[in-house]
Amino acid sequence: MSVRTNSIGRHLPTSGGLGKTLKLARELGCETAQIFVSNPQGWAVPASRPDGASFARESREAGVAPVVAHAKYLINLASVDDEKRWRSVEALARELVAAGAVGAELVVVHAGSHGGDGEERGMARLVEGLERAREQAAKLAGDPGRVAEPVVENSVGAGTQLCSTFEALGEVVRRAGARVCVDTAHAFVAGYDFSEEDGGRAVAGELVAAVGGAVAVVHLNDAKNELGSHRDGHRKVGEGMIPLEALPGFFEGLPGVPVVMETPFKGDEADAEEVRRVKELVGGLRKAPDRR
Question: Which of the four, 77, 182, 264, 271, has the lowest number of CB atoms within 10 Å?
């Protein structure tokens, strides 16, 4: 059996406390995990978690790393509306601090929408928003080392959404100094064809050509909808439009990048089986992480 360098995990609930989240991660065989640090559907400030420090320590000890947080869905750093844009900056800054407090290293944030004002202006606002959120988070935390890193996720390209192309993600990397999160379902419905022969390897090659080594995490989701449809929707790996045969080549092109699934929950047994299957597809046994 081959040896892989990609850590495999999934998004996990935090209801019942972070101790319960870590227990579930172990039961499912997760080597990395994603969580929310606040209600993703509301603007409320993330609450302080008394179990945050213990979760940070125990997740490292259990080899569940990196821990990734997903930012609020409401955040739109590229918004044409000044009030919403600055509210988004504030919200992201607080999420970066809250994520750092529980040991999360990365916060995935959607690229947002230019609202009809054009991609060029929207991209400029996105870049500025990222810079301001990082600055504000460092001030709130009092220590930049305690703040998680924001990474920008590709979109499906519906309407006025930004960053549906790898070239646009590359622009974020160059202009904002940010790394990126690539969602396989989003990429597929935005037009990146995993279904052709050797498609996964080809898509990974396009991605690396555009962003270099700036892929911080992959959201491994199967696509509910057709290639190029620009319609979001996740399915469990192997149950949607992306053929399983595409995945080994895709991850060969992204060595060491952590992989988090955001697929539908179907019970612990089915979720554990999905994690196990993806480990095999991505290369079997994992190379021991370097803890120096």
Answer: 264
Structure tokens at 47: 């609450």
DSSP state string for 8-60? EEEE---TT-HHHHHHHHHHHT-SEEEE-SS-TTS-PPPPP-TTHHHHHHHHH
CA-CA distance, 204 to 208, in Å (whole number)?
A: 6
Contact 62, 32 (CB under 8 A): no
pLDDT in tens, 97-126: 999 999 999 999 999 999 999 999 999 999
The residue ranges of every structural domain in the chain are 3-283
pLDDT score of 2 more than 80: no
Q: What is the spatial distance between Cα 144 and Cα 153, in angstroms, rounded to a whole number?
A: 22
Query: What are the residues whose beta carbons fall under 8 Å from the beta carbon of 125, sequence distance 6 or more?
Result: 77, 78, 79, 80, 85, 114
Alpha-carbon distance of 59 to 82, in angstroms, equals: 39
Place of tokens 């979001």: 232
pTM over 0.90: yes
The domain 3-283 belongs to what CATH superfamily? Divalent-metal-dependent TIM barrel enzymes (3.20.20.150)
| Residue 241, helix vs strand vs coil | coil
In DSSP terms, 183 is beta-bridged to 219
